[in-house]
Design brief:
With about 300 residues, the chain is α+β, with helices and mostly antiparallel strands. It folds into 3 domains: about 90 residues, 2-Layer Sandwich (Pseudouridine synthase), CATH 3.30.2350.10; about 120 residues, Pseudouridine synthase; about 60 residues, Roll (Archaeosine Trna-guanine Transglycosylase, Chain: A, domain 4). Helices cover about 25% and strands about 35% of the residues. Strands 1, 2, 3, 4, 7, 10, 11, 12, 13 and 14 form a 10-stranded mixed sheet that branches. The mean pLDDT is about 95.
């Protein structure tokens, strides 16, 4: 296939690390330029947005998207990792019924500040939290602002409770489950997790890695491969050609383009604007505003 630049909506299976997914894609696509827009724990499955080629320059903008999850919480168990892969710290009798579990879960909604899992990649003094945990070093667990909404109770079959919700970027499902267990008085740990949405993409748009490899070999078109030019559908676009495009390629914004950007840019809503070639349709650059500098080129895209 021709060299690809864009997103691949991967359906990760449980047991793979995010690094495993990236390594497999590098082999399938024969390129080192592969990244991702948000990790999934090895236990988790579901939608993982991979970035290929020049799309790796978009990671900070793709990461801005909210997420949705379908989760299973095992009640009566607390572990060091806040999921069933960890060491059991405590077990408790489950004295609550389905109605109480439903009520407790639906109450954990809105904006809140929760402790992050000790087994996470957040850095404290230059060291990742999970490194402190593995080295048995003491560290103060930080809180993180998280927001949860559209919480739905799905089922309860002792000891497993099943919920769905949407959450802000960077929220920890394990922290939500730990709070659920705390509020129920019996503890809880994550036993299964599926990411179903990473705004604006959904799980049913994704593809398994083995299917991706087979269909690429067969020369088939794959809808889970999102071209770079349409990878940021919610971001405004301006199309240019000729002299404006030549200047942009040299790292300069022409007077005409700058004037047009002023009419388009809403500082209350827009972080960036995409600049696209009118002739080829390719994404050329991402432009934003910086204090005291006005419009600047945030990223130049060349492919």
């Amino acid at each position: 296939m021709a060299e690809f630049h864009g997103l691949i909506l991967v359906r990760k299976v449980s047991g793979m690390t995010s690094h495993d997914v990236v390594a497999r894609l590098r082999r399938i696509l024969n390129t080192k330029a592969v990244g991702h827009a948000g990790t999934l724990d090895p236990l988790a499955e579901g939608l993982m947005v991979a970035l290929v080629g020049e799309a790796t320059k978009l990671s900070q903008y793709i990461l801005e998207g909210n997420k949705a999850y379908h989760l299973h919480a095992r009640l009566g168990v607390e572990t060091d990792t806040l999921d069933i892969t960890g060491q059991t710290l405590k077990t408790s009798d489950i004295l609550c019924d389905e109605a109480k579990i439903r009520e407790a879960g639906l109450a954990i909604t809105g904006a809140m500040s929760l402790p992050v899992p000790i087994f996470s990649a957040i850095k404290i003094n230059g060291q990742k939290l999970y490194e402190y945990a593995r080295n048995e070093q003491e560290v103060k667990i930080p809180n993180k602002d998280m927001t949860f909404w559209d919480v739905e109770f799905m089922s309860y079959k002792k000891p497993e409770a099943e919920f769905k919700f949407k959450c802000s970027k960077g929220s920890y499902v394990r922290s939500w489950i730990a709070l659920l267990g705390q509020n129920l008085g019996c503890g809880a740990t994550m036993s299964a997790l599926t990411r179903t949405w990473s705004d604006p993409y959904y799980l049913d748009q994704s593809i398994l890695l083995e299917d991706l490899e087979a269909r690429l070999k067969a020369g088939e078109e794959i809808s889970a491969m999102i071209p770079l030019a349409v990878a940021l559908p919610a971001v405004k676009r301006v199309r240019i050609k000729g002299h404006d495009q030549t200047l942009l390629g040299n790292g300069q914004i022409s007077h005409d383009l700058r004037s047009f950007l002023i009419t388009m840019f809403d500082p209350l809503k827009d972080d960036i604007i995409q600049v696209v070639s009118l002739t080829s349709g390719k994404l050329l650059a991402l432009v934003g505003i910086e204090k005291d500098r006005g419009f600047v080129i945030k990223r130049v895209i060349k492919y």
